[in-house]
Amino acid sequence: MQTSASVFSISPVLVWFRNDLRLHDHEALTAALQDNARALLVYCIDPRQFVTITPGVPKTGAFRARFLLESLVDLRASCRSLGGDLVVRVGEPEQVLPALAATVRASRVYFHLDAAPEEGAVERAVRQALKARGVGVRLFSTHTLVHGDDLPFDVAALPDTFSQYRSRVERRVDVRAPHPAPTALPACLIDPGELPSILSLGLTDPLPDPRELFRFRGGETAGRERLRYWMWDADRLRTYKTTRNGLLLTDDSSKLSPWLAHGCLSPRLVYAEVRRYEQERVRNADTDWLVFELLWRDYFRLVLEKWGGRLFAPGGLNGLPYPWRRLDDSGVRDDFDKWTAGQTGFPLVDAAMRELAATGYTSNRARQNVASFLTRVLGIDWRLGASWFESLLVDYDVSSNWGNWAYVSGVGNDARGFRFFNVLKQAREYDPNGDFARHWLPARAEHHASPMVDLFSAADASALTYERAVAKLAPVRATPTRR
Ligand code: FAD
Questions:
Q1: Which of 144, 364, 367, 426 is the best mutation target for the ligand 1 pocket, counting ligand atoms within 8 Å of the beta carbon and taking the most?
Q2: Residue 166 contacts by C-beta under 8 Å, 6 or more apart in sequence?
Q3: Is the CB of residue 76 below 6 angstroms from any atom belonging to ligand 1?
């Protein structure tokens, strides 16, 4: 394999892949191929994504690491089938990209922008390092349903509530059609590099769990298959709004989130399929609702873009002075560990936390309940829960995770402020026969071995008892004291 720059008759463009691990609807790649036949596709595995974070867990846990590596294998295979390759390097992008640009004498690097603070800092470091070597950049927007350039307002003027935001974009914006995937790629004239193993990232492959009902497999190919299966073969879009709150059954919701989060699927491709479905099958409130959820996803990205690091403060966007219990406060580690281990004694919470630990996924309804339980019942700092999710979730995405956590904890962009999910009422409504709890929890006797359960053995499904139990459990329960 030649590695000398002399093999490049035209100065190549590097396309830096980030959370956009696909060939379809890839604006940066499309532009690079249009501008310059010699595009070189690169992905950097950044060791900073694998450090340990508070509360003592890997920033990227095994479920997401496995999904990422599978996505890279798939992307590389797709590139190879088109005559190209995906160059993979382990290292910080601000080191890897300038070095690679120098090796191949690249004139420019194309990539997609990311609103999150850490990702933004990496971007700035990359741009500086490239500038020092005289290498230019071109930036694109790809993560959202509504293209960044089509927003009818400046991000600084983002409406404070989702409803206001939605009505403004729905009235004024057409969603762009996805760019087609390329049909051929230029040959890769340097060593593409080996993909690291999960072990070399300091993690081990998650053990298969016999209770797991659906295994998320990384990559654009698997993402497209899931989309086709769920929407067309199983025909589940027509009932989506009614079933999406289901806790147990795989097809109750789309399960597209890991592919959207890693960019294996473009939201605009999902949207185009929804519109096609509406023409060929049915248009109803359920088909609209999937678009509604994709707009929520966009909204959280814009919230992060507007508010930046403030989203990660204990009091959230508005600096509310909640008296959160911190990890080093007395008794908090114990309560937090029971929450993470699914040993609180509340079957809905425990089943969801065990599902999360065993699979890297739990449903939206379950996430809302466990988040509310941690912050409203145990009074624990919401950021510990968000970090726990960051480590475990296979579909982790900075803005959706931190935005939803802040929202449920009452410190986000929420007009109503104080939210509270009564987990017993919720269990009655969403798990009336206890199927979800039975699926994830061991026999009742064993489950009841937890000391926190003793505290709640008297709890029944009435709201009053629940309130009393909550009061007993959380003497320092966070109450909203607005300034
Ligand atoms: P579906 O119901 O089929 O929804 C379709 C798509 O719409 C999802 O794949 C997702 O991309 C988007 N979507 C749906 N609901 C939301 C929402 N509330 N906010 C933003 N986007 C949404 N979602 C993530 O993708 N990554 C996260 O890190 C994440 N963390 C969360 C943390 C908490 C505390 C809560 C309450 C929610 C979180 N969500 C997150 C949102 C939501 O729970 C998941 O997107 C959803 O459960 C994924 O399953 P699905 O693909 O079957 O969803």
A1: 364
A2: 292, 295, 299
A3: no
Encoded tokens for 362: 């739990």
Q: What pLDDT sits at residue 479? A: 47
**Rounded-to-integer distance, Cα 452 and Cα 338, Å:** 8
pLDDT for 462 beyond 90: no
8 pLDDT above the threshold of 80: no
What's the CA gap between 169 and 166, in Å, rounded?
A: 5
Evaluate whether 23 touches 268 at the Cβ level (below 8 Å): no
- 183 CB contacts (<8 Å, ≥6 apart)? 82
Q: CB of 264 closer than 6 A to ligand 1?
A: no
Cβ atoms of 13 and 36 closer than 8 Å: yes
User: Quick one: 186 exposed, middle or buried, by C-beta within 10 A (0-12, 13-18, 19+)?
Assistant: buried
Longest Cα–Cα distance in the chain:
77
Distance CA 367, CA 370 (A): 5
The mean pLDDT of 310-337, rounded to a whole number, is: 93
52-53/57-58 β-pairing: antiparallel
Query: Which residue minimizes the CA distance to atom 42 of ligand 1?
Result: 364
CA of 364 to the centre of ligand 1 (A): 6
Interatomic CA distance for residues 425 and 466, integer angstroms: 9
Tell me the pLDDT tens digit for each residue of 103-140: 999 999 999 999 899 999 999 999 999 999 999 999 99
